[in-house]
Each structure stands twice: as structure tokens, then as C-alpha cells.
Design brief:
- This protein has two domains: 111 residues, 2-Layer Sandwich (Beta-Lactamase), CATH 3.30.450.90; 222 residues, Rossmann fold (3-Layer(aba) Sandwich).
- 30% of the residues lie in helices and 30% in strands.
- The protein has ten helices and 18 strands.
- The strands form two sheets. It has a nine-stranded antiparallel beta sheet with strand order 4-5-6-7-1-2-3-15-14. Strands 10-9-11-12-8-13-16-17-18 form a nine-stranded mixed beta sheet, sandwiched between helices.
Length: 341
């Protein structure tokens, strides 16, 4: 198998048409659809470019990515008896994901997400400037998470800005705290010295579940889990209930209250073998562990020229008050104070 350096050369060489986008610090994601059209996310908004990346270039890049992933970096799935494959891996500070033509009949798809250096990560001032949230709301979140130490779930769709916002808030962490960070790809950049950054590798058995258990054996003031996916949920909530106040995770969901419903499902699925918990007990446990939900969305907004542009927004911020008759009780801080009954 080719060595990683040579594979990186092949990947970069086949993507010369988008090389300037890969090097543009304002571009956070490059998305190539089956026809070869290239879209980018710049400052939280998705834009179409004039670039069409040839099929052969996309295919060569993704094959190289799959070879890299096959070496144990992230993961590859091959459809037996065909040339179709989907792959995902991190290479040289970039996270690649895509599918070779045959999965999408239009052509090979490719998405490239950039892992920015710590000093290049957007801070709250930049997110405010980009329109993701107001200065007042940003300071409110800092108060709730950093100062009041509420356990928070940042929820939203894929590429909705969950991790970006969480990272910006966590830039305000006090320097004296000891932080345990668990990720499956290097995306967060905590500007505190006293931290351990664990990287999960499911292929080797080093899952987020294992790392959460390990983190509980060490003395951390807060735990940061980049994303709650499934079998780690039980152990994560157990950790949050044991005094790691002000901890943070992210979750895919379609609303603030939907985040709690999704978390409940993941929690029930992650219970140890032989352990059962009623829905009411699970809901009560979840609301005792999670204090705050921040829901980020990516709506499309009409521009002056008549086009529609997608941009990231904080849509809901809600304090978890408990559960009543099976319905989660939320007190909305944003968009305006109200109670959901």
C-alpha cells in the first residue's frame, strides 16, 4: 500500500481545481455533487461556485482517500461485486467524505471539511459579525455555560454550526480548569492549557464509550464530548450526574425539545445488557443531567438579488426545567422567554 505522504500528494494533485478553496481560510467546507458542481461554506453561508470538478479527479481523490482510510484512519465501506464505495477520513487537516459513482448515479460525490488551526477558529465576535447570534445572546450563553456551569447540549442539523458555536463559547473557559475532551475527529480547539484531548478510533475498539469511562477515572472539572452518537450516551449522562458541571456535547436534532427526545432514545439504546428503565425514569434522569439546550439551524434566506442563501443561526436556547406527564418542560431564553407546556 502507498505510504500516507504519497496518498496525500495524490489527493492534493487530483484536486488542483479547488486547491485555492482548500487554502482559503474563510472557507470551512467544500461540497462537490454528482454532476461535479462545487459549493462552499464561507463564513457560515453556503455558496455555489463556478467550478466544475471533473469526474476522474473526484474519483482519483476518493480512491486515494479510501486507501488512506483502509490503513485504519477512519473508515471505508465497499459494496461487494461493484466499484462503489463510500469513505471518510482525515488527511492533512482536512476531513474527506464521499461516494464513488454508482452510489450516486450522477457521479462521484465529495465533501471536504477543513479543520482549522486553533488560532483560526472563529470566536464569538466573529460569529456575531457573521450574524449567527447577537452579542447579548452570546454573553448569556457564556454566563449559563461557563459561569453558572450548566450542562449543555448543542443541537442541530449536519453543518448547522453546533461544534463551531460550542468551541467559541468554550474559548471563554477559565485557565485554571482541567478539561477532558473526547472527539472522533480533531474539530475543537480549546484554549486552555490543562486539558487532555482523546481521539476515538472505533476500528481499534477505542470508542467514545471507552474514553468516557476513562475520563471518569481522571480528575476533570468538565467533560467535552464532540458528539453523542449512541452507545456512549449512558456513560456520558452518568458522568454528567457525577459532578462534571458545565460539561458540553453536541447532538443531531431538529429542535430544542427534539434534542431531548433524541437523547432519550439514544440513552435507552445504550443501557447496559440486562438493565431496563421506564420512559418516565429515563426522562427524569435525563432532565437531572442536562440543564440547557442550544439549537442551531441553517435556514435559507432570500437575498436582495432574489437568490436563496443558507446561513447558520442560533434558533432556540432553552433551560431544561423537568418533565411533566411525559412532556419535557423547557423555559426558552431565546427567541423570547416562554414556557412549553
Amino acid at each position: 500500500m502507498l505510504n500516507p505522504s504519497r496518498l496525500q500528494e495524490i489527493i492534493r494533485g487530483s484536486l488542483q481545481a479547488v486547491a485555492h478553496l482548500m487554502d482559503d481560510k474563510l472557507v470551512s467546507e467544500i461540497m462537490v455533487i454528482g454532476s461535479g458542481l462545487v459549493f462552499v461554506e464561507r463564513r457560515g453561508a453556503i455558496e455555489r461556485t463556478d467550478i466544475v470538478l471533473p469526474e476522474n479527479d473526484r474519483r482519483l481523490a476518493l480512491i486515494a482517500v479510501s486507501k488512506y482510510a483502509g490503513g485504519g484512519s477512519k473508515g471505508i465501506d465497499i459494496v461487494e461485486g461493484t466499484e462503489s464505495a463510500v469513505a471518510s477520513t482525515s488527511v492533512g487537516g482536512l476531513r474527506f467524505a464521499g461516494a464513488i459513482k454508482g452510489v450516486d448515479s450522477a457521479g462521484t460525490t465529495l465533501t471536504i471539511r477543513k479543520h482549522l488551526d486553533p488560532e483560526e477558529r472563529p470566536d464569538l465576535a466573529q460569529l456575531i459579525d457573521w450574524g449567527m447570534l447577537s452579542h447579548e445572546l452570546a454573553e448569556k450563553l457564556v454566563d449559563l455555560i461557563i459561569h453558572q456551569r450548566l450542562n449543555c447540549v448543542f443541537a442541530g442539523p449536519t453543518s448547522g454550526g453546533k461544534t463551531t458555536l460550542a468551541n467559541a463559547i468554550l474559548m471563554r473557559l477559565p485557565s485554571h480548569e482541567r478539561i477532558g475532551l473526547i472527539e472522533d475527529a480533531r474539530e475543537m480547539a480549546l484554549r486552555v492549557e490543562h486539558k487532555n484531548c482523546y481521539l476515538a478510533s472505533p476500528q481499534t475498539g477505542l470508542t467514545a464509550k471507552v474514553l468516557v469511562k476513562q475520563a471518569m477515572r481522571e480528575r476533570y472539572d468538565r467533560l467535552i464530548l464532540s458528539e453523542t452518537r449512541g452507545d456512549d450516551t449512558f456513560d456520558l449522562l452518568r458522568a454528567l450526574s457525577s459532578g462534571h458541571n458545565g460539561s458540553v456535547t453536541t447532538l443531531h436534532a431538529s429542535s430544542a425539545v427534539g434534542a431531548l427526545s433524541t437523547l432519550e432514545l439514544l440513552f435507552q439504546m445504550s443501557l447496559p445488557p440486562g438493565v431496563q428503565m421506564s420512559p418516565a425514569a429515563a426522562q427524569g434522569y435525563i432532565t437531572s443531567c442536562i440543564n440547557l439546550i442550544v439549537f442551531c439551524s441553517r435556514p435559507y434566506e432570500r437575498q436582495a438579488d432574489g437568490t436563496e442563501k443558507s446561513s447558520r443561526r442560533v434558533s432556540e436556547v432553552a433551560i431544561v426545567k423537568g418533565v411533566k406527564d411525559g412532556i419535557y418542560q423547557l423555559e426558552y431564553v431565546f427567541p423570547e422567554p416562554q414556557t412549553l407546556h
